[in-house]
Amino acid sequence: MNLLHATLPAEVAVIGAGSWGTALAALLAAKLPRVTLWCLEAEVAEGINRSQRNPLYVSEFSLPANLRAETDLHHVVANHRILVLVVPTPFVRRILASLVTVAHPDTLFVFASKGVEIETLTLISEIFAELFGAAGMQRACFLSGPSFAREVLQGLPTAVVIAGQNGSVVQQMQRLFQAPHFRTYGSEDVIGVELGGALKNVIALAAGVSDGLGFGNSARAALLTRGLAEMVRLGVCMGAQAETFSGLSGMGDLLLTATSPLSRNYTVGWRLGQGESLESIQQGAREVAEGVKTTVSVRRLAVQKGVEMPIATAVYEILYENRSPHAVVKALMERELKAE
């Protein structure tokens, strides 16, 4: 199979019209003759096609006129050879399963979602391999790194990493996404890039809680440092390369997500630290903070694999065991002394 076939169409479809999906679609539309954005909500598709704006997400930004929206998923998939999937992790398996018999055998997939499936504790790459076979992984890439949708739409400098098993496909996807304000790096460490993007959301929740409690800069710095150590421990146990977590999808994404109010995960943590309940925070939220569900997966993975992750455990206790943030922090600080 020639994955870089000369007749591969320039058109690309982005599956998922939330903030990040919309930003990536706009980025690609600035380079290509036409980009299709699949929308779950008909009102989003209508808004984009009528006024070049997404009415529900990042609505303050005007989108390129050559970005067109559709709601027929199978039609979109059957007529495009490059698919960028940007859907919440809990829906990835269901969507991919519906595409197995629809997608062309040469279709290239780029995944820009971040998370671990709760029911099976599997990564998105593992779900894809289950459904499309190990050979299908030669056609898949995974995009991660420190990036806010609004800043990409503003044209602010951003750098990400694209990982995949097939170096030629990774390079092609690097060229596809590369733009004057959007720099792409390549990697072969699929597991490390995926886990970095997922695990940092849990640590970002912890950092938000710390700031919400008013614990200051020193506490946040300690949380990020020790949180990164937890990410590396679990990652290496699962087959990732330790050095990947020093890069964009690890430390880079962690620094961004755990320090900015633009981060949904940080903001949820901050509100928890301020005394709000998770239920009240989630009511009316249009977009999810993926770390809330990822915390469940990470906690189960840590127990299953015998990996010590006290910060992730503390976040789990705050979210799902109704433990007081103050009590959890006290327990963390009073743990048995050990070498770094």
Can you give keywords for this protein?
single chain, about 350 residues, alpha/beta, Rossmann fold, N-(1-d-carboxylethyl)-l-norvaline Dehydrogenase, domain 2, eight-stranded mixed sheet, 15 helices, 8 strands, disordered N terminus
* Gyration radius from CA atoms, angstroms: 20 Å
Q: What structural category arises from helix and sheet content?
A: alpha/beta
Strand content: 5-15%
- On the 0 to 100 scale, the average pLDDT is 94
Q: Pick out the low-confidence regions.
A: 1-9
Report the CATH C-level class of the largest domain: Alpha Beta
Largest sheet: 8 strands, mixed
Helix residue percentage: 40-55%
Q: Please identify, by name, the CATH architecture of the largest domain.
A: 3-Layer(aba) Sandwich
CATH topology of the largest domain, anyone?
Rossmann fold
Overall 3D shape: globular
Give the CATH superfamily of the largest domain: NAD(P)-binding Rossmann-like Domain
Spatial strand sequence of the major β-sheet: 3-2-1-4-5-6-7-8
Number of helices: 15
- Distance between termini? 49 Å
Number of separate strands: 8
- Order of helices and strands, N to C? EHEHEHEHEHEHEHEHHHHHHHH
Taken together, the total number of domains comes to 2
